[in-house]
Write a structure and sequence with these properties.
The complex is a heterodimer.
Chain A lengths: L5 H16 L4 E2 H11 L8 H14 L2 E7 L5 E7 L1 H25 L6
Antiparallel strand pairs in A: 1-3, 2-3
Helix pairs in contact in A: 1-3
Chain B lengths: L19 H23 L4 H12 L2 H41 L1 H30 L10 E8 L4 E4 L3 H8 L5 E15 L5 E10 L1 H4 L6 E2 L4 H5 L5 E4 L1 H6 L11 E4 L2 E8 L12 E4 L4 H5 L7 E6 L5 H15 L14 E6 H6 L2 H33 L1 H12 L1 H36 L15 H28 L2 H6 L8 H38 L9 E7 L7 H16 L4 E7 L10 E3 L1 E2 L12 E9 L1 H5 L3 E4 L13 E5 H8 L8 E3 L3 E8 L14 E5 L8 E8 L3 H15 L5 E6 H7 L2 H35 L1 H9 L4 H30 L15 H27 L3 H6 L2
The chains are: A alpha+beta, B alpha+beta.
Chain lengths: 113, 886
């Protein structure tokens, strides 16, 4: 998804990642697939950009990572939400809700009186 | 799928797996790509197309990889640090708990270290302050005092005269800069009461030598003294604040010194402290008359040598100079022919008489430190031994050696830090106490404070002790066969006998060292006692002394004589004053005049060294006032004045040495002009109660007014304050502008002369007591430990019919054996080193049997006392418990 505002994009990406992982531990590819599925292919993330984001979230302590094995027996790194991450997710979600509400209000306004 | 959320406790706690950060990141990203490629291939793409598509979708693989690696590395670093800190914190808490569990050990170890480090800090501060710090000057190591030595006159380390200094200044191949300096004092008049102030006269590049820049105005230059007429003065910071009122406009002000007007041209910075008490600096006026008097050796010569001059070059250069003075003649046995110059480092010269004492103290401190260290090491060893089992269990449970060693190190660090901190506090207290001690009048000590460099030293010692003492038991713990230990009975590891021997040796050494210190202190105490009991030759009690100095050059010689004669008479007339007199050099006051002399009719025999005697001019009833008995003939009277027969009075030591049983009265001596001997008085000590007698010749001041300042001595039973008030009035009557200064009781002057010795004695005694205490603790500790390990054996003995008394005897015996070994060692050591003390002793030899007996007895008794408690404890052991105990 090409967007000029990098910060906004990163923040949104973090939110999506947190939410995705709130369903359960996944490896990086798993996250990508899930987002593609859920958004019916409408949201296409540059796959590589995922990993720095995941590691940064881990650095912050919102995610925890561990090596594990897939069904096929391959070694993969799984990420999981921490308690701190869960709280952060709630906060970010309510922030997003307020933000999008504010935007909606502006967009549906009736004009200048 | 294995639940990765289950093993979370193991997650990422240690540095990333075996592959490291780079490998793990590569693996993670490779996995992603692999899966994608397979997905695409399954969807129908060719291998190459799938790879290309997957890569394209992924993005810039290397860049992303690098980014992720960076993040991971940051994480690892932070976690490792966090882990280490956490481990350290854990260790510290464990260590505190362990130390609290053995309070005896902790207390004794901390105290021992504290006492050792505290003593070290205090003494090093003193040494630093007195010996090392006084001048913070660039090129200090190249500053030398040049001294004159005239063996023919028995003169060594003497000063020079201004013309001689001028000569040396010309030798710039030797000296970068050269200067002369002499102390003096002035009558300051012109504003209120006349006051006596201390001055310093300088010539040459004095200020340049010390790199001084003026705080205000300017400093005078060498040229200012050469032209001989400039009357300028530079004030010291302290004097500027008092007399100058800290006024920045003081430059240009007139100051009246000895009735002459000088102009203030500058103020010195507060940091310049060539002489602590100086108040004003003036140039030495080198007039033609001064240039002629080459033999007036009363100026100190200081110079900075050129860089790179070796001691040999210095000696050769000085030799060249004296040859020049002899007009090219070589060395010979005449007085002039024997003259030579010597150079002494400025720092060493200023330390003066204090040096031997301070060196002694430093040795004592080091000894105490050694004892303290030995003690703490013992304690550590003993404690480590008793914890072998605990450590073995920990190791067996998988703790690993490094954590154990680390924890032991943390423990000893805590002890060391506590000991060091307490030690520094004790040291600061000790310094304050030293400063306030009334019996020690050493001006250099007034400035004493805890030096930052000394603090650094104390910190270093602390850290070192931590490492040294902690290391041995820690390494031992790491190396020992821990599993073997668990199997063995708790009686001890196979390293037992070795450790025991080490302990015993160390305690014996402590006993030896403390004996040496005790003996040293004992000898000093006896010396001091002897000194205090020495008769100085005069009666110092009830004598008030003060100085009055007339400015030089203001009166004719006869004027001075008349003045002091009148002053003396009027002082004697004060009600309550039994006798009043004056003298040029008072005993136990600074300054001594001496000179060669001849006895008419007794020429110097071949090979006999030249005769030298102290020279005193007295006025009024001096002998009666100060209490010197007249043993033969008469003292001076009013008849002995200018114009009448020149007379002299000699002292008993001169009479004994040169006249023997002959009657000296009626003979003549010559110390300048011929003088007829009319009386003999008792010999006195002039400056130190321990000095040998020096022949002295007294002259009536009226016939020999060769100095313009005298010490007045008043003998009175009345209260000194009242008498002094009247004395001042008398002086003011004769001359309003004359200050009365240096007012002291004679007894004080005598007592003060012992100040340095008292200090040494007090400190050394303190150290000896400390050393003994530590040694006693050591004996106690070792015996406790060894008896506790032998409870099993003791139990058997008791069960087999031994009486508790036998057990006590056994333990006491082993304790006394230990002490005995230490005593023998200490005695041997002291006999070897005792000679080094001789310069400080008086009236006792280093091999004084009484002192040795008392000292050894004290140590033996203390050791016995130390052994008593463990002995009793061992005897009270219940045989059944002892036998049951493994």
């Amino acid at each position: 998804m090409a967007s000029p505002d990098l910060d906004l994009l990163r923040g949104t990406l973090d939110l999506l990642l947190l939410k995705t992982l709130s369903w359960g531990p996944m490896h990086g590819l798993g996250v990508v697939r899930w987002i593609e599925q859920t958004t019916h292919q409408r949201l296409l993330i540059e796959e590589g950009a995922l990993y720095p984001a995941l590691h940064r979230l881990e650095e912050r302590g919102w995610l925890e990572a561990e090596w594990g094995y897939t069904e096929k027996g391959r070694r993969a790194k799984y990420y999981r939400l921490t308690q701190l991450g869960r709280r952060q997710l709630t906060a970010e979600m309510s922030k997003w809700a307020r933000y999008s509400e504010a935007v909606r209000l502006v967009l549906t306004a009736e004009g200048i009186r | 799928m294995t639940g990765p959320w289950e093993g979370l406790k193991r997650a990422f706690r240690l540095p990333l797996g075996r592959r490291g950060v780079k490998g793990e990141v590569a693996d993670e990203l490779a996995f992603h790509l692999q899966e994608r490629i397979e997905e695409l291939v399954a969807g129908g793409l060719s291998r190459e197309a799938a790879e290309a598509e997957a890569r394209a979708r992924f993005g810039d693989l290397p860049a992303i990889g690098a980014q992720v690696e960076q993040i991971d590395r940051r994480m690892v670093r932070r976690r490792t640090l966090g882990d280490s800190l956490e481990a350290l914190g854990r260790d510290a808490r464990f260590a505190l708990r362990a130390l609290r569990r053995s309070p005896g050990f902790t207390l004794v170890a901390v105290l021992t270290l504290a006492l050792g480090i505290g003593a070290n800090t205090a003494i090093f501060s003193a040494v630093h302050g007195v010996l090392l710090r006084p001048l913070a000057v660039p090129g200090l190591d190249r500053l030398f005092v040049i001294q004159q030595n005239a063996p023919g006159l028995k003169l060594f380390g003497g000063q020079l005269s201004p013309p001689q200094i001028e000569d040396i200044t010309k030798h710039d191949e030797l000296f970068e800069s050269f200067a002369g300096v002499s102390g003096t004092s002035f009558n300051l008049t012109g504003s209120g009461e006349p006051v006596r102030i201390i001055g310093v006269r300088t010539m040459g590049a004095f200020f340049e030598l010390f790199g001084v820049r003026p705080a205000l105005g300017r400093l005078y230059r060498p040229e200012d003294s050469e032209n001989g007429s400039e009357r300028v003065a530079v004030l010291t910071d302290g004097f500027w604040r008092t007399w100058g009122g800290a006024d920045s406009g003081v430059v240009g002000r007139a100051i009246e010194l000895n009735s002459r007007i000088y102009q203030v041209i500058g103020v010195l910075p507060a940091s310049f402290r060539y002489q602590q008490t100086a108040q004003v600096y003036v140039p030495i006026a080198i007039t033609p008359a001064v240039r002629e008097r080459r033999g007036t050796w009363s100026t100190t010569a200081i110079g900075r040598v050129q860089p790179g001059i070796t001691p040999e070059q210095m000696t050769a250069g000085l030799e060249r100079i004296t040859t020049e003075w002899r007009g090219g003649a070589p060395r010979s046995s005449s007085v002039d022919g024997q003259l030579f110059l010597s150079a002494r480092s400025l720092v060493a010269a200023r330390a003066g008489e204090l040096q031997p004492i301070l060196k002694l103290l430093m040795v004592a401190v080091l000894l105490v430190m050694l004892i303290g260290c030995a003690n703490v090491a013992n304690l550590q060893l003993v404690r480590a031994a008793s914890r072998e089992k605990e450590l073995a269990v920990r190791a067996a449970m998988g703790s690993g050696r490094w954590p154990i060693v680390r924890q032991l190190m943390v423990e000893s660090t805590l002890v060391a830090v506590a000991g060091g901190g307490l030690g520094i506090a004790l040291g600061a207290l000790a310094i304050q106490a030293l400063k306030r001690m009334p019996t020690i009048a050493l001006p250099a000590l007034q400035d004493l404070h805890l030096d930052p460099s000394v603090l650094g030293f104390a910190a270093a010692v602390t850290v070192l002790s931590a490492l040294v003492f902690g290391m041995a038991p820690a390494l031992r713990a790491a190396r020992a066969d821990l599993h073997g230990m668990l199997r063995e009975a708790s009686r001890g590891s196979s390293a037992g006998p070795g450790r025991n021997r080490l302990l015993r040796m160390s305690v014996a050494a402590q006993v030896a060292l403390s004996l040496m210190l005790l003996l040293g202190a004992g000898l000093l105490i006896r010396s001091l006692a002897r000194l205090l009991g020495t008769d100085p030759g005069f009666r110092a009690a009830q004598v008030i002394t003060f100085q009055v100095t007339l400015p030089a050059g203001t009166l004719q010689q006869s004027g001075y004589a008349t003045f002091f004669a009148r002053l003396s008479a009027r002082l004697g007339a004060i009600p309550g004053v039994e006798a009043a007199g004056a003298v040029n050099d008072l005993p136990f006051a600074p300054g001594r005049n001496s000179s060669p002399f001849r006895i008419i009719g007794k020429p110097v025999a071949e090979g006999e060294p030249q005769r030298h005697a102290d020279m005193r001019m007295v006025e009024g009833d001096y002998f009666k006032a100060i209490g010197i008995p007249v043993t033969r003939g008469r003292a001076f009277s009013a008849q002995d004045r200018e114009g009448t027969q020149r007379v002299a009075v000699i002292d008993e030591s001169l009479a004994r040495e040169y006249f023997g049983s002959e009657d000296p009265i009626g003979r003549s001596v010559n110390q300048g002009p011929d003088a007829l001997i009319v009386g003999v008085v008792g010999a006195i000590k002039h400056g130190d109660l321990g000095e040998p007698d020096k022949p002295t010749i007294y002259y009536p001041y009226g016939q020999a007014p060769w100095t313009t300042g005298l010490y007045l001595t008043l003998r009175t039973a009345r209260e000194p304050g009242a008498i002094m008030a009247q004395a001042r009035a008398v002086v003011a009557e004769l001359d309003r502008n004359l200050p009365v200064h240096d007012i002291r009781l004679m007894q004080e002057r005598v007592d003060d002369s012992l100040g340095a010795r008292r200090l040494a004695m007090l400190v050394l005694t303190g150290f000896a007591a400390l050393a003994l205490l530590l040694a006693v603790l050591g004996v106690y500790g070792v015996l406790s430990y060894s008896t506790s390990r032998r409870t099993h054996e003791v139990g058997i003995r008791l069960a087999l019919g031994a009486v508790p008394g036998d057990v006590v005897r056994m333990v006491l015996g082993s304790g006394l054996l230990l002490a005995g070994a230490g005593l023998v060692l200490g005695l041997a050591g002291f006999l070897l080193l005792g000679r080094l003390l001789s310069s400080l002793l008086y009236g006792v030899t280093p091999y004084d049997p009484v002192t040795i007996a008392v000292g050894a007895g004290l140590v033996a008794l203390s050791a016995a006392a130390a052994a008593w408690v463990p002995a009793r404890r061992a005897a009270r052991v219940d045989p059944l418990t002892a036998l049951r105990e493994e």
